[in-house]
Amino acid sequence: MPELPEVENYARDLKPLLVGRRIQAVEVLWPRTVATPSVEAFVQGLVGRQIVNTDRRGKYLLFPLDDHRTLVVHLRMTGQLHLAAADAPTDPYVRLVLRLSDGQRLYFRDQRKFGRFYLVDDPAQVLGRLGPEPLQDGFTPLDLFNAVQGRRAPIKALLLDQHIVAGVGNIYADEALFLAGIDPRRSGGSLTLAECSRLHACLRRTLAEAIREGGSTLGGSSLGNYQRPLGVQGRYQLRHRVFRRTGQPCPVCGTPIQRVKVAQRSTHFCPRCQGHYRVGDADEEG
DNA sequence: ATAAGGCCCTGACCGC
DNA sequence: TGCGGTCAGGGCCTTA
Fold first, then answer.
1. Which helix (H) or strand (E) holds A157?
2. % of chain A beyond a pLDDT of 90
3. Strands annotated E in A177-257
4. CA A39 to CA A143: how far, in whole Å?
5. Residue A34: beta bridge partners?
6. CA A185, CA A191: separation in Å to the nearest integer?
């Protein structure tokens, strides 16, 4: 499932492959992939346009065009973008194809059909009230503290809330909470400023490491798993400390990793390292 | 405003 | 072998 690091890798990898290319034709194989405008207007709006940049905001990919409109893409759970020659073998999971001026095609594969494309005048139409970018200077420990103050929802759920911070999904929420030594089930409002500072630092560290490692590819190369545009897999899954490591020893203390449900999401944590109390914290919860 | 639950989707997996 | 039920979950929508 592509989160911030995977989407960032897409934006970086696609830049030299797409910038300057013109879209010659668009094939929409699963109409609901196009969120806005209508499929007809989407195709007409893209044909003939040149892609002038590739960017990312949260988990959204942004492709600014030469007419100052923007193609926005969200991969959701199983969406993949890959670039291949026109004669690539047919694939039943391809939902949308951009034919490019250099003869290459950008294929959007999406097993579960959750991914969405938007063609808009202003990306803000799609991005709405997305929270701050976690790796940018504008996002401070105090911002995180203020955002979770007074909230009863578990801190894990708040990290997944894109209004609080943009781009964090299930993998990196679990990994960051582990590094910060915070129990994912604790209410946001129970976190001290010191804990929020630690979480802020650990979140950044996790995301930056994952970007460097090319993101996380779960379950090998099988259907619907993240791959980079030329088919390369990520490496960060090899560094996961808790995510999908239920029953395996904690890399710090050896205690078996536990799996629980938090906010309807499977959640992995070390019951010892992420206990309710840590020296130095004025923890309000029992 | 917040929190919780349903919905969209399909393939893998489990138990009988 | 076959089949029904369950799970996975991001974002958006509805409900309290």
1. helix A155-160
2. 80
3. none
4. 40
5. A117
6. 11
Q: Which residue has the tokens 């490692």?
A: A213
Distance CA A98, CA A270 (A): 44
Q: Any catalytic annotation for residue A113? A: no
Instruction: Determine whether A5 is an active site residue.
Output: no
β-bridge partners, A187: A154
Residue A114 DSSP code: -
**Active-site residue A59, yes or no?**
yes
- pLDDT class for A220, splitting at 50, 70, 90? low
From the number of C-beta atoms within 10 Å of its C-beta (0-12, 13-18, 19+), residue A247 rates as exposed
**CB–CB of A281/A190 below 8 Å?**
no
The least confident of A74-83, A86-95, A147-156, A236-245 is: A86-95
Out of A113, A239, A265, A272, the active site residue is A265
Positions 60-119 of A with beta carbon below 7 A from strand B are 77, 92, 111-114
CA within 13 Å, CB half, A1: 12
Average pLDDT over residues A208-236: 82
